[in-house]
Specification:
heterodimer; A: mainly alpha; two-stranded antiparallel sheet; two-stranded antiparallel ribbon; 16 helices; 4 strands; 2% strand; globular; B: alpha/beta; Rossmann fold; six-stranded mixed β-sheet; four-stranded antiparallel β-sheet; 10 strands; ATP-binding (chain B); ATP binding (chain B); ATP hydrolysis activity (chain B)
């Protein structure tokens, strides 16, 4: 048997990375930071955010398209990653502001006074001036970065363990994941959740200690970081879904019971996939929200996770680049339509206003793709690529069979 | 020949219907055993109980030299302990190649991290080819399992069973959909396997059972009606009444 290298077996990896690299370089050259200013800084941020959405979409594709678990809660993990990094960003920046304002004081402030001042700055809006316990590590960038990975990872691990152990599958599991993200969002909406209720965390675009650096430069840095994370995520997931692991995961999707009778503990595999994708979703969120500037509980509302599933379905389940393309196309079109980019159509008796009608168009596209193009946008690649290199063998085998 | 699997006093009901009724059954290693019985006799439920899919209401299921109870083990744990199952309807992974199907079944550590870090070895590849040759699918290794004919899928599933290297093979209607030549090959294969392993074959086809030339257990309404050689059981009055004389 030919033991070809991992990259040779997965040519899409190199194509994908090349496309990301060209895209990132192109966007950089056209940005205000490069001096050309062909695209605005806010558009660079939109592109950077899109890369993060592509990353969470490929994670969703692994859990749904490959492993068959229709999770409608993965944006909760994305949001938790955002909250984790947002806590540090807000704390560290407020600390600098407070330090500046207290510097003028005649009596040097005690550490307790500094801490109280920071707390009342951050939490005054929800009527408290005490740090909730979940902010214990907010002063440490390192620990909060750890939280970006740990919080979504542990939540997914515990939730997945409970759900998979009880053999909850199919639509019941989807409902359960919706309940999880709904519960999380409702909890976060409360003022005493410790995360500023419906105000959420804001000002995340301002990096502490880097006030002198213009947003044009910051946006390019995040664009690159997002592109790097997307490329690494793609390689990671391409590796997971290739080889024997991929075989077992797709087996779980197609016939869970059969995999079990082969001696594989299906629940462990589901838990592995669920957790690793949740961790990647958390990382994607941690890169997204500093570019968005604000995170609030609406971001983890159930609808966000449903959109994620729609992107993956439209892009094409079961192939990573399909999910990434779906996320990019649909989310960019969505912001184009809803921000008034698309001209309204005057029908004489009725004006089609795209900000209202975009959702209808998206819904119709989703139904159309599901019914008529189950392979999604990614399926278009099959038209160009001779995908089946085994074809000569198979043709030969069929001919022999016919002869028999 | 030592006893490998022993069921005693096993009963299970579904919504008041007693699918298995005080069933006792033993099989040694090595041994070839055919189970026959009319529809609804409990043949498939018997396999479900042994493989852990169904939990009996009463009775014990004891496995191996250490006499461990299978009733507390999960399906995957039972499979790893050495019980392999071939389903009546061929169930292979249709969107994967024949090679991938066999590789998945190949006896290797089954944990997620073992599998993630698994490296293809020349040894494993040789074993896959050996099994594929055995079941006549050597030329079809790169094909999608879904493209195979019904008979070939049966063979692939038998190949997957072999790849697992189980001690006890539960084979449900292996000859369904096979040509006479293929049936003969199947009988030879099962008889050869039974020299070293315990093999339980559930079959409707009397001719096939006769060719297996082994001890036969007749199931009826969830319990054993008769046991012995085929010639012996077909003379049994009750067996004739419930099964053969239909």
């Amino acid at each position: 048997m030919k033991n070809r290298s991992f990259l040779a077996q997965n040519p899409s990896i190199l194509w994908f990375i090349a496309a990301i690299a060209i895209f990132t370089l192109g966007a950089t050259l056209m940005s205000e930071a490069a001096g050309t200013g062909l695209i605005s800084t806010s558009f660079v941020k939109t592109l950077g955010k899109t890369l993060c959405l592509m990353l969470v979409a490929i994670a969703m594709d692994v859990v749904w398209g490959y492993c068959g678990i229709l999770s409608l809660g993965h944006m909760a993990f994305f949001g938790l990653g955002g909250y984790a990094i947002g806590m540090w960003l807000m704390y560290a920046r407020t600390e600098i502001i407070v330090a500046e304002s207290l510097a003028a004081a005649t009596i040097p402030p005690t550490p307790q006074e500094v801490s109280d001042a920071i707390a009342s700055q951050i939490f005054g809006v929800v009527g408290t001036n005490k740090f909730p316990w979940i902010w214990t590590f907010a002063d440490s960038l390192f620990l909060q970065l750890l939280m970006v990975v740990l919080v979504p990872g542990l939540l997914a691990l515990v939730f997945g363990w409970l759900a998979f152990r009880s053999r909850v599958t199919g639509v019941y599991l989807s409902i359960l994941t919706q309940a999880m993200t709904l519960a999380l969002s409702l909890y976060l909406f409360q003022n005493d959740s410790g995360l500023r209720g419906n105000n959420g965390l804001s000002g995340l675009q301002n990096l502490p200690g880097l006030d002198g650096v213009p947003q044009a430069t910051v946006s390019i840095a995040f664009l690159w970081a997002s592109a790097l994370a997307l490329a690494l995520g793609y390689v990671l997931f391409a590796w997971v879904v290739s080889g024997k692991m991929g075989s077992v995961i797709r087996g779980v999707r197609d016939n869970e019971a059969r995999v079990r009778f082969l001696g594989y503990h299906v629940e462990s595999y589901k838990l592995f996939v669920f957790t690793i994708t949740a961790v990647v979703a958390g990382i994607a969120g941690a890169l997204y929200y500093p570019q968005a500037g604000i995170i609030n509980p609406a971001e983890v509302a159930p609808i966000a996770s449903i959109y994620l599933a729609v992107w993956v379905a439209i892009g094409g389940r079961g192939r990573l680049y399909g999910a990434a393309i779906g996320a990019a196309v649909v989310s960019l079109l969505s912001s184009w339509f809803t921000s008034g980019g698309a001209p309204n159509i005057d029908l004489g008796i009725y004006v089609i206003n795209w900000t209202d009608w975009w959702l209808v168009l998206l819904g119709v596209s989703f139904v159309a793709v599901t019914l008529f193009f189950p392979k999604g946008i990614g399926g278009l690649f099959d038209l160009f690529i001779r995908n089946d290199k085994r074809a000569p063998d198979a043709v030969e085998a069929r001919r022999r069979e016919a002869a028999e | 020949m030592s006893t490998l699997l022993e069921l005693s006093g096993v009963s299970v009901s579904f919504d008041g219907f007693r699918a298995i009724n005080n069933l006792s059954f033993q099989i040694g290693e090595p041994e070839l055993r055919a189970i026959i019985g009319p529809n609804g006799a409990g043949k498939t439920t018997f396999m479900d109980i042994v493989t852990g899919k169904t939990r009996p209401d009463e009775g014990t299921v004891i496995w191996g030299e250490k006499s461990v109870s299978l009733l507390r083990m999960s399906e995957s744990h039972i499979a790893r302990a050495g019980i392999g199952r071939k389903f009546q309807k061929p169930t292979v992974f249709e969107s994967q190649t024949v090679r991938e199907n066999l590789a998945m079944a190949l006896k290797n550590p089954r944990g997620p991290f073992d599998v993630l870090l698994y490296r293809k070895s020349a040894q494993g590849a040789a074993r896959i080819e050996e099994i594929a040759a055995e079941v006549g699918l050597l030329d079809h290794l790169p094909r999608m399992a879904g493209e195979l004919s019904h008979g070939q899928k049966q063979w692939l599933e038998i190949g997957m069973l072999l790849a697992q290297e189980p001690r006890l093979l539960l084979v449900d209607e292996p000859a369904a959909g096979m040509t006479p030549a293929e049936r003969e090959h199947t009988t030879d294969l099962l008889k050869r396997l039974a020299r070293k392993h315990a093999v339980v074959v559930v079959e409707h086809d009397m001719e096939f059972v006769r060719r297996l030339d082994c001890k036969v257990t007749v199931l009826h309404e969830g319990s054993v009606l008769a046991e012995g050689s085929l010639d012996h059981v077909v003379k049994n009055k009750e067996v004739i009444d419930v099964y053969l004389g239909r």
